[in-house]
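name: query_chain
kind: protein
chains: 1
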Amino acid sequence: MYKKSDRFIPSCVGLLDVSALPATLWERSAQTFLSATELAVLGTIRHARRRQEWISGRALAKYLVLSGAFPCNIVRMVGIDQLMSVPIFEYREVDVLPNRDGAPEMWRRETLMDRALSLSHAGGWVAAALLDEGSIGIDCEVIQARHQAFLNDSFVEAERKWVKGHVVADGPSVDCLYTLLWSFKEAALKTGRMASPRAINIRLRTDSDFPVAAFRRLQASSRELISLDWRVNGLAPRFAFTACLGWVLSLVHFPRLPRYA
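structure:
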């Protein structure tokens, strides 16, 4: 069964249309949104699209923190006007830098912020998710057809059977369902709790009306985060997802592990 996101509510999830601005404007905005340390890292990145992703992802993540993000089950659509509403000096006080595993961490005035952060880029969009406790992964994927060899290699038989069993005339397509499952695997990988997306097996409920009912719900509210109760490799992380025309966005959250004396 799917339900409204009353179990898993991240601190904030934001989505930014990177393609709304020319690449030259993103380059000029680097001095606005990036700290001196981030600018030094940007100087080592040669590929134009990768530079654009580096700038826009950090601008979005910082905006979510600096604008006073609050728990919400709706994805916040952020534009350049919203980004510019935060004073420039505040952006420069925050660093979003990769840790030793490559995952982004947020620092403010050389102090590590106690918030988990995940970033994703796809189809001209950048997505960011913040969480106060535990680990979080976000993945944004463009819905597209995938080669059968990829499907056979990336999904176990039970997952492929689940997809085929939920394709109906007025529901999500095969491509949409496979993209959704792949985005869950990628998001789970970004939590740092999994080794490889192809090694992630999602245990699915075959008796559930999801995803048909869930996607119908999203037709009326395309930015709502719908929470799911699935299991991955015997673990029970929290899932949430939303979808819009042409893409899906997935979140996976592992609660913070208890500390033992």
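note: The chain has a mean pLDDT of 82.
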